[in-house]
Design the sequence.
């Protein structure tokens, strides 16, 4: 994947570090075992043992309740807008407790951002491939005829004009603030804000900290963005497939409506109704492409 990505442009090293504001102090996210020892004691135990039936139980298999209540439950309830017990256990697979206090969000060997930006990188990837922009396939289906396969990467329920009902998604409203006199606003590129008492936003991001230092140092001031989750009505706002049992079942019902001959492929984050990180989305696309090309 790394070799493939580099065919379309150079990457600079960027290893995301996230902190969570807890009791007025910036703590590591994912949670450091040293924090748990400080907060609960040396001989801490996870709260829950056994097979988890929901997100809360899956999280409590990793940590004591006090830590869950500070870092995980309020953050997740802001993000999804429902009690954490209503979310799927699999969602807890997105984090762990760091026995070694590793502060990086990801442990991947290669972590980076294209030097010339994602738009340029993607444009190079598409070189030689005809591209039509600003074309809503679902409203203009009759204008597209395909020879072997049709690949659709939009929402699977919208593809079927919602005839089994609407899948739920969450999105985020973004409020950008430019501070011309501040060189650096945050201690790290992203600060999570689980505590509702500190405002409805879920996190704040400082873009400058994701840029190559030599580029960032030439920028006057800084831009931060506060993200606040909401439930979007329009598909353009769909960002996160909803991780609960009702929607998983509805998604499966939509999938079973796809023709068995495999000529229509509905895939990607919205098509497969799965939260993919970028590397996972690209690896999935490469996997599907190699299957198609060998077909
Ligand atoms: C807020 C947020 C932050 C994220 N941060 C990170 C991060 O830090 N690191 C990371 O690795 N990943 C991150 N991701 C995940 C990353 O964005 C996804 O993994 C990636 O975009 C998935 O690619 P995709 O091709 O599956 O879907 P998408 O990027 O959603 O692409 C689907 C495409 O289909 C098009 N489409 C939809 N409907 C139609 C239609 N009717 N007609 C024509 N075209 C249509 C859309 O316009 C879009 O271009 C983040 C995602 C979100 C929402």
Sequence:
């Amino acid at each position: 994947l790394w070799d493939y990505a580099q065919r379309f442009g150079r990457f600079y090293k960027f290893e995301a570090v996230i902190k969570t504001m807890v009791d007025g102090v910036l703590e590591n996210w994912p949670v450091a075992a040293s924090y748990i020892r400080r907060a609960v004691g040396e001989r801490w135990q996870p709260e829950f043992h056994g097979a988890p039936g929901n997100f809360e139980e899956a999280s409590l298999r990793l940590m004591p309740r006090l830590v869950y209540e500070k870092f995980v439950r309020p953050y997740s309830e802001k993000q999804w807008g429902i009690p954490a017990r209503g979310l799927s256990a699999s969602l807890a697979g997105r984090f762990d407790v760091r026995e070694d206090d590793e502060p990086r969000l990801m442990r991947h060997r290669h972590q980076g951002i294209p030097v010339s930006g994602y738009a340029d990188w993607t444009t190079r990837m598409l070189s030689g491939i005809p591209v039509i922009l600003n074309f809503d396939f679902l409203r203009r289906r009759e204008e597209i005829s395909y020879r072997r396969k049709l690949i659709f990467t939009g929402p699977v329920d919208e593809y079927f004009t919602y005839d089994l009902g609407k899948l739920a998604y969450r999105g985020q409203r973004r409020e950008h603030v430019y501070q011309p006199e501040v060189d650096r606003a945050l201690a790290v590129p992203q600060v999570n804000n689980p505590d509702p008492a500190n405002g409805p936003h879920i996190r704040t991001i400082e873009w400058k900290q994701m840029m190559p230092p030599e580029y960032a140092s030439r920028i006057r001031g800084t831009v931060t963005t506060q993200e606040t989750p909401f439930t979007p009505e329009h598909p353009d706002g769909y960002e996160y497939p909803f991780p609960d049992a009702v929607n998983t079942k509805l998604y499966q019902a939509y999938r079973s409506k796809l023709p068995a001959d495999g000529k229509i492929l509905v895939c990607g984050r919205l098509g497969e109704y799965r939260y993919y990180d970028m590397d996972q989305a690209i690896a999935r696309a490469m996997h599907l492409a190699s299957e198609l090309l060998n077909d």
Summary: The chain has a mean pLDDT of 96. The first helix runs from residue 2 to 6. The pocket of flavin-adenine dinucleotide is lined by residues 136-138, 153-154, 172, 239, 268-270, 276-279, 281 (CB under 6 Å).
